[in-house]
Design goal:
heterodimer; A: alpha+beta; Immunoglobulin-like; Nuclear Transport Factor 2, Chain: A; eleven-stranded mixed β-sheet; 28% helix; globular; B: 174 residues; Arc Repressor Mutant, subunit A; 2 domains; 10 helices
Chain lengths: 463, 174
């Protein structure tokens, strides 16, 4: 008989057959894993979207101080100036901005704007955040005068060293000469359409103040990519804003609010983002706002609340359901008064996760260390971030509203307010560095409440 | 039909481009087997594997390098197993109390399996992990040392003494 060392591999493999998985085990594992992915996507995904929104509103050079500014940003109109919105994505969204760009091009300042491929390449680097060395552009046609199609792809996204890495996603960029045509007319990006995103057909125009359902499905995605959806609003009469949500899902449906200001320009943006924050695929569709005869509401708070700003230069705002606000207040009061019975009553043991563990009763630990509750109160008093899109495969899940807004912050370029929030939580510069190295974004204390008011999680820290 | 050891290894090393389900299905049998050998307890093995999958599948960066997924998962299972035994601090009592569960299969297989599992439970947890990684996972001594976070000399000693102990426990059959 062979010696034990020779027989050991086969003996061990036979012994291991004593524990075979069943379907029940698979459902449990995947459900928990998806839940954790949604939470982690919320942290990293929103930080990435904040950067992209910053790029849209012309603040990317503030966000990424190492990036070379191309010098094509259109200056903001002075207060009170009349502007005419264009159905366009980038760089200009008003007729006045386009006229300025054309004048600069005529003066020889913006030669790249006279070439659709170069304009598409600039869009890839400035808006999608791609490394210029990785951008590949192919002009695929000019169906009519003043319109060009350019396909852009990121060579850094595949095919890579692994045979499993599929071909890089391609995005068809539509460019138009919205003013002068011919060799001297500047090109403007008017639409982007990725081969990995199926965005439902959207109207070219929507009434001011109306609601619009946006649905998208995703093809050939990779498991580490996040899904994000945003409505970017450039409003000449006020600060630009970006409604954002992010998560891990195969299909998203979001009900978005069209602004009341018909002078604003909006674009629906659906993106796939990788763990490094790079946009790997994007569908971007501008929508014209039609003036509405309905009165503009002066107070929209009513049954909802509004989150505060999060990003460096842009504002994230969305309405928070009253059920969420009620739960937030109940948690904060119970935590502040050390009412452990009230806290326990707010926890559904089947859904609440404490430090990623579902079913664990956190109250004994909170009794031992009440400072954990002080942190909870502190983050609930801070502005929240945009809500996450949840995985439809998660039982009973809906949009989740998360605190604090720091989750969506760029830790490499903090505002004064963000620094104050971090200090209030006792997070040091060294902690921030550790977060950046380990995760690339904020992984400090955070909590989330479902749309129906169910308290879903409280995580002290870590990923 | 049951896959051979080499078939399972080949399948594990094939390129992967699917979702969570495919990753789970590709690795769950090996993961449960490893955890079962490390703990000798099916329920505990399921708990450890569940936690390990949730940790690794939930971390996007761990998924970025798909070829390294099993490496991440295996390391997490070994770490969780070691943490479990350290935390419980009832190892001796557990070793005396613990006996492998009856498993489904032909009688002679069950008997042989039970004898091996009983023998394995006489090893210290880290010694058991060294033997299992070396012979079940077919890792080199260097890779076993890396997976356990121990010096290679310590691992050589743990494996050698562990095998001596198993020979004693298994008697003539060894």
């Amino acid at each position: 008989m062979p010696d034990l060392e020779t027989r050991m591999p086969e003996l061990l493999h036979r012994a291991a057959m004593g524990a075979l998985p069943d379907d029940r085990f698979e459902r449990r594992v995947l459900r928990r894993a998806r839940r954790r992915r949604v939470l982690n996507a919320s942290v990293t995904g929103l930080a990435a979207i904040a950067l992209i929104a910053g790029a849209f509103v012309g603040t990317r050079e503030l966000v990424l101080s190492t990036r070379v500014t191309l010098g094509h940003e259109t200056p903001s109109p002075p207060p009170g100036a009349v502007t005419t919105p264009l159905t366009a994505v980038w760089p200009e969204t008003t007729a006045e901005g386009l006229a300025t760009a054309q004048a600069r091009a005529d003066a020889g300042e913006l030669p790249w704007r006279l070439d659709p491929e170069q304009t598409a390449a600039a869009f890839a680097t400035e808006i999608l955040g791609w490394d210029p060395a990785d951008v590949r552009t192919v002009e695929t046609g000019r169906p009519r005068i003043g319109t060009a199609f350019v396909t852009i792809s990121n060579l850094g996204l595949g095919p890579g060293a692994s045979a499993a890495t599929p071909t890089a996603p391609e995005t068809m960029v539509t460019l138009r000469q919205l003013g002068d045509t011919g060799d001297g007319g500047v090109w403007t990006v008017t639409q982007a359409d990725s081969n990995r995103i199926d965005l439902q057909e959207l109207p070219e125009a929507a009434p001011a103040g109306s609601r619009l359902e946006v649905a998208a499905a995703f093809r050939d995605t990779q498991v580490e990519w996040f899904v994000t959806l945003g409505l970017l609003v450039v409003d000449p009469s006020g600060p630009p804003s970006a409604y954002m949500s992010t998560g891990v899902t195969e299909r998203i449906v979001e009900d978005i609010q069209i602004p009341f200001d018909a002078a604003a320009t909006i674009s629906v943006v659906v993106m796939l983002v990788d763990p490094e924050g790079t946009t790997v695929a994007a569908d971007i569709m501008p929508i014209t706002i039609e003036a509405s005869s309905s009165p503009i509401p002066t107070d929209t708070s009513g049954a909802t609340g509004t989150s505060g700003g999060t990003g460096p230069g842009e504002e994230v705002s969305e309405e928070i359901p009253s059920a969420v606000l009620a739960t937030r207040d109940a948690i904060a009061i119970a935590a502040e008064t050390r009412d452990y019975d009230a806290l326990k009553a707010l926890i559904d043991p089947d859904r609440f996760s404490y430090n990623f563990d579902v079913g664990t009763d956190p109250v004994p630990e909170w009794r031992r260390d009440p400072s954990i509750l002080d942190t909870l109160v502190a983050i609930l008093q801070m502005p929240p971030m945009g809500h996450t899109i949840t995985d439809p495969l998660l039982d009973g899940a809906g949009p989740t509203y998360m605190w604090p807004a720091l989750i969506a912050s760029d830790l490499t370029n903090l505002t004064v307010e963000e620094r104050a929030m971090l200090e209030a939580l006792g997070i040091t510069r060294r902690d921030i560095q550790s977060m950046l190295e380990a995760f690339g974004g904020y992984t400090g204390p955070r909590t989330g409440i479902a749309e129906d008011g169910t308290w879903l999680f409280y995580t002290i820290g870590g990923d | 039909m049951m896959q051979t050891v080499s078939e399972r290894r080949r399948a594990r090393a094939e390129p992967w481009a699917g979702g969570l389900e495919e990753l789970y299905r590709r690795h769950v049998s090996d993961a449960l087997g490893l955890a079962y050998l490390l703990t000798g307890d099916r329920t505990l093995a399921e708990d450890l594997v569940q936690d390990a999958f949730v940790k690794v599948l939930g971390r996007f960066r761990d998924l970025r390098n798909r070829d390294a997924f099993w490496w991440y998962l295996r390391r997490t299972i070994v770490n969780l197993s070691n943490s479990h035994f350290r935390r419980r601090r009832v190892e001796r009592a557990w070793l005396q109390r613990q006996r492998p569960e009856a498993a489904i299969g032909p009688d002679h297989d069950v008997e042989e399996r039970d004898r091996l599992m009983t023998a394995l439970t006489t090893l210290r947890p880290e010694q058991r992990a060294a033997v299992v990684l070396r012979y079940f996972e077919d890792l080199s001594e260097a890779d076993t040392a890396e997976a356990l976070g121990r010096p290679i000399g310590t691992v050589k000693s743990m494996v050698s003494r562990g095998m001596d102990r198993l020979r004693e426990e298994l008697g003539d059959d060894a």
